[in-house]
Amino acid sequence: MAPFTHSRLRDLAVRCIELQRVEERDVAAMARAVAEGGFITRGEAEDLMRIERDVALTCDGWRDFFVVTLVAHLVWECRPVGRVAPADVVWLAGQLDQPRPGAAAALGEFMVELVREACDSADALVELAFAENRAPRARAPREDISARAA
């Protein structure tokens, strides 16, 4: 696994990966960190992708936060605004090709929302979305850990 780069989310990402769970308080802390900057960096997007790929148990709030934050990053925070640039599609393909020891349950929904939100979806992006949703990978069952976290 590539080393983490500096990000506002790094400590939270490392903690979630080490504990193998994302709790509601983690999602709230990540949302606050993102709100402080108004956008996320590519390194922070990679941190979120690592959490999604590597963590076995996620709370209910994680899926929405993950999908909304990454769609906003790729469609509205990167240039060209409103589209997913070819270089970003290549980056995304690399992220999706990484090993997934965790549940990775939100990746399919993320890809569908990404295609929906982009004003013009390149064929390569649509193909990635189809591939992600066509043949579901073996996924660990999602468990609502918010009750246990209290």
How many distinct beta strands? 2
Note the gap between the termini: 31 Å
Biggest sheet strand order reads 1-2
Give the overall average pLDDT.
87
Task: Summarize the structure in words.
This protein is mainly alpha-helical and 150 residues long. The chain has one domain (10-136). The protein has eight helices and two strands. It has helices at residues 10-19, 24-37, 42-54, 60-77, 86-96, 107-117, 123-134, 146-149, and strands at 21-22, 57-58. A two-stranded parallel sheet has the order 1-2. α1 runs parallel beside α3 (42-54), α5 (86-96) runs parallel beside α7 and α6 (107-117) packs antiparallel against α7. The longest helix has 18 residues, at 60-77. The radius of gyration is 15 Å and the shape is globular. It starts with 9 loop residues before the first helix and ends with a helix. The model is unreliable at 1-5 and 138-150 (pLDDT under 50).
Considering the chains and any ligands shown, give keywords for the structure.
single chain, two-stranded parallel ribbon, 150 residues, mainly alpha, disordered C terminus, 62% helix
What's this, in brief?
The protein has helices at 10-19, 24-37, 42-54, 60-77, 86-96, 107-117, 123-134, 146-149, and strands at residues 21-22, 57-58.
Summarize the topology:
Layout: H1 10-19, E1 21-22, H2 24-37, H3 42-54, E2 57-58, H4 60-77, H5 86-96, H6 107-117, H7 123-134, H8 146-149
Parallel strand pairs: 1-2
Helix pairs in contact: 1-3, 3-4, 4-6, 5-7, 6-7
